[in-house]
């Protein structure tokens, strides 16, 4: 397993473009997080301190940072898609197989690398969130601090799921640009499914239930948007703002199911294909 | 003798097209094999199948004694097919390190193998800056990293300039001289003739011949003759039972043998009959002539 990750890391690390993209996908969310936590003075007109809004309080901070950080996954998605696209365009996939890598090992080396980077991203966000939280939060009892760390697990699963989807599209289409375009097409398709379900059930709630099983939506649903929750804390008496933002194991299960399917399909595709 | 590769009734279809049809042969240790055939005769497809990049339709093949998975067997094989494929953004050395990691061998031999192919001074240049000849030589270095049991080369001199072709040929000869088994696919017959001891001849995916190069055709060679008394010579040859076909081109007479006969013996015979030869050469058909004969017989 270590050999396979090493192989892939060498391929990525010596490529300048993917090195830069990996850097961005790690450093950018981190910087945004740090910047947003300091007091920003707008030329003396007013000062903006997001900390005062209470968003850096435990446990809501876990929710907010993981939600925002997950938008930066697109940078690493480009890396994932191009690490397949490049193997095809350089024909190095063929050479790797001739040199004695099995097709299974090839897919696994990509998948392990995805896990490796997802884990690294999760740990980084976890540590950063913990530090900022300790600095700003009004509550620092252990029971409150760690109450919603399951958002970190959700973040980890979300990254793995999304990158596995990218891996599959890369294998399917062989070209990086097409694979990224397909992500957009899938997004539209999911809304078409939603519309279809709405026509059948005549209920937006039920249609959303159906859409929740779709790959992109299931990943998005893992971490619900936190803004409504922030507003909720400001107006605790407005009951109609209430919504369910918790992480459910059923949601994690759906995403893991898709992940397994994407990896399996990628392997099947490679196995059946004449290179 | 130890078998390195055994292919039994291998068939590969691409849709309606049958690229390889019921092909069987074995590769034995220590020989240099050539796979011959015109373009599109199934050479590369056959190699693709045994190298795990093309899926077979029917039949089977196994490496060595048949107890290892194909991908593990390939770690003991060195192969270059069609074009050299490496990561353009890595240097030669980094590329070879990656190959070492895939094959699970130590990186000690990188310098040595780069020296064999004469690329040591460019070891730290990126692959994309290499010329085609250098790329092809790097591919050979990469195939040699694990000191392979067998080296497979598919059209190794394709697209190279004369110097490049000469360099690659010299490297192949040196490797063959070390006793490494080599399988060389090519449509360039003189290339195969210069290095191979055995050939497999393919046409349209079917095997026409496999065996030693010198046993490929059952002819006993021919004499090329010149003399002043041309008409007398021709009549003697026509009466003689040893010759079945006689060709005359200007003043050069070519007489084909039906049984073995040494040139000295023939010379003596002619002298006894009062014919003095000004030119006498005994030759065997070149591989090209034999190949054309073999493929023509089926037309």
Gist?
Chain A has 275 residues and is mainly α. Chain A has helices at 2-13, 16-37, 60-69, 73-89, 92-98, 103-136, 142-145, 150-173, 176-201, 204-211, 215-222, 227-234, 249-272; strands spanning 40-42, 46-48.
Describe the structure.
The complex is a heterodimer of chains A (275) and B (299). Chain A is mainly alpha-helical and 275 residues long. Helices cover 74% and strands 2% of the residues of chain A. Chain A has helices at 2-13, 16-37, 60-69, 73-89, 92-98, 103-136, 142-145, 150-173, 176-201, 204-211, 215-222, 227-234, 249-272, and strands at 40-42, 46-48. In chain A, strands 1-2 form a two-stranded antiparallel sheet. Chain A is globular, with a radius of gyration of 21 Å. Chain A starts with a helix and ends with a helix. The mean pLDDT of chain A is 87. Chain B has 2 domains: 3-215, 3-Layer(aba) Sandwich (Rossmann fold); 222-283. Chain B contains 10 helices and 13 strands. In chain B, the strands form 3 sheets. In chain B, strands 5-6-7-3-8-9 form a 6-stranded mixed beta sheet, sandwiched between helices. In chain B, strands 11-12-10-13 form a 4-stranded antiparallel beta sheet, with helices on one face. In chain B, helix 4 crosses helix 5. The chains are: A mainly alpha (275), B alpha/beta (299). The interface between A and B is medium-sized, with 28 and 32 residues.
Structural class of chain B: alpha/beta
Largest interface: A-B, 28 and 32 residues
**What letter string, H or E per element, gives the SSE order of chain B?**
EEEHEHEHHHEHEHEEEHEEHEH
Biggest sheet strand line-up of chain A? 1-2
Report strand % of chain B. 25-35%
- Any idea what the CATH architecture of the largest domain in chain B is? 3-Layer(aba) Sandwich
**Domain count of chain A:** 1
CATH top level of the largest domain in chain B is Alpha Beta
Count of DSSP H/I helices of chain A: 13
The geometry of chain A reads as globular
Q: What is the helix content of chain A? A: over 70%
CATH topology of the largest domain in chain B: Rossmann fold
Can you tell me the number of structural domains of chain B?
2
Largest sheet of chain A: 2 strands, antiparallel
Total DSSP E strands of chain B: 13
Mean pLDDT of chain A: 87
Q: End-to-end distance of chain A, in Å? A: 25 Å
Percent of residues in helices of chain B: 25-40%
Please state how the strands of the largest beta sheet of chain B are arranged side by side: 5-6-7-3-8-9
The biggest sheet of chain B, with number of strands, parallel, antiparallel or mixed sense and barrel status, is:
6 strands, mixed
Query: Taking all residues together, what is the mean pLDDT of chain B?
Result: 86
């Amino acid at each position: 397993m270590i050999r396979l990750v090493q192989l892939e890391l060498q391929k990525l690390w010596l490529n300048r473009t993917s090195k830069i993209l990996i850097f961005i996908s790690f450093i950018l969310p981190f910087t945004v997080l740090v910047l947003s936590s300091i007091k920003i003075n707008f030329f003396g007109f007013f000062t903006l301190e997001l900390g005062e809004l209470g968003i850096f309080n435990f446990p809501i901070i876990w929710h907010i940072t993981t939600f925002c950080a997950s938008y930066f996954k697109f940078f690493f998605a480009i890396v994932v898609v191009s690490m397949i696209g490049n193997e095809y365009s350089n024909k190095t996939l063929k050479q790797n197989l001739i040199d004695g890598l099995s097709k299974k090992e090839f897919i696994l080396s990509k998948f392990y690398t995805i896990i490796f980077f997802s884990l690294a991203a999760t740990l980084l966000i976890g540590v950063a969130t913990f530090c900022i939280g300790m600095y700003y939060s009004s509550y620092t009892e252990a029971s409150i601090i760690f109450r919603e760390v399951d958002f970190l697990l959700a973040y980890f699963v979300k990254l793995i799921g999304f990158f596995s989807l990218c891996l599959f599209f890369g294998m399917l289409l062989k070209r990086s640009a097409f694979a990224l375009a397909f992500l957009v097409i899938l997004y539209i398709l999911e809304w078409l499914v939603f519309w279809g379900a709405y026509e059948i059930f005549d209920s937006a709630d039920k249609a959303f239930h159906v859409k929740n099983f779709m790959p992109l939506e299931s990943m998005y649903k893992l971490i619900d948007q936190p803004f409504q929750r922030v507003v909720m804390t400001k107006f605790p008496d407005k009951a109609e703002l209430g919504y369910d933002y918790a992480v459910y194991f059923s949601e994690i299960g759906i995403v893991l199911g898709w992940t397994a399917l994407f990896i399996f399909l990628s392997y099947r595709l490679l196995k059946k294909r004449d290179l | 003798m130890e078998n390195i590769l055994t292919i039994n009734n291998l068939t590969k279809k691409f849709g309606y097209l049958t690229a390889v049809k019921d092909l069987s042969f074995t590769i034995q240790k220590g020989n240099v094999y050539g796979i011959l055939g015109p373009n599109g005769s199934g050479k590369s497809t056959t190699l693709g199948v045994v190298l795990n990049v093309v899926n077979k339709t029917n039949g089977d093949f196994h490496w060595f004694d048949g107890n290892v998975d194909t991908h593990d067997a390939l770690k003991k094989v060195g192969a270059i097919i069609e074009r050299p494929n490496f990561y353009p953004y890595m240097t030669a050395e980094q590329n070879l390190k990656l190959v070492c990691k895939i094959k699970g061998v130590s990186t000690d031999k990188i310098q040595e193998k780069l020296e064999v192919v004469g690329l040591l001074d460019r070891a730290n240049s990126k692959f994309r800056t290499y010329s085609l000849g250098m790329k092809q030589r790097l591919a050979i270095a990469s195939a040699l990293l694990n000191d392979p049991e067998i080296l497979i080369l598919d059209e190794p001199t394709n697209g190279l300039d004369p110097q490049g072709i000469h360099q690659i040929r010299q490297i192949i000869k040196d490797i063959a001289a070390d006793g490494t088994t080599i399988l060389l696919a090519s449509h360039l017959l003189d290339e195969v003739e210069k290095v191979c001891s055995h050939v497999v001849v393919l046409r349209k995916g079917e095997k026409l011949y496999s065996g030693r190069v010198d046993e490929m055709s059952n002819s006993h060679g021919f004499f090329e003759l010149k003399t002043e008394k041309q008409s007398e010579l021709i009549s003697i040859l026509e009466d003689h039972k040893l010759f079945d076909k006689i060709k005359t081109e200007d003043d050069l007479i070519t007489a084909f043998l039906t049984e073995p006969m040494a040139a000295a013996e023939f010379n003596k015979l002619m002298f006894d009959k009062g014919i003095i030869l000004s030119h006498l050469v005994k030759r065997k058909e070149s591989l090209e002539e034999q190949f054309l004969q073999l493929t023509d017989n089926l037309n």
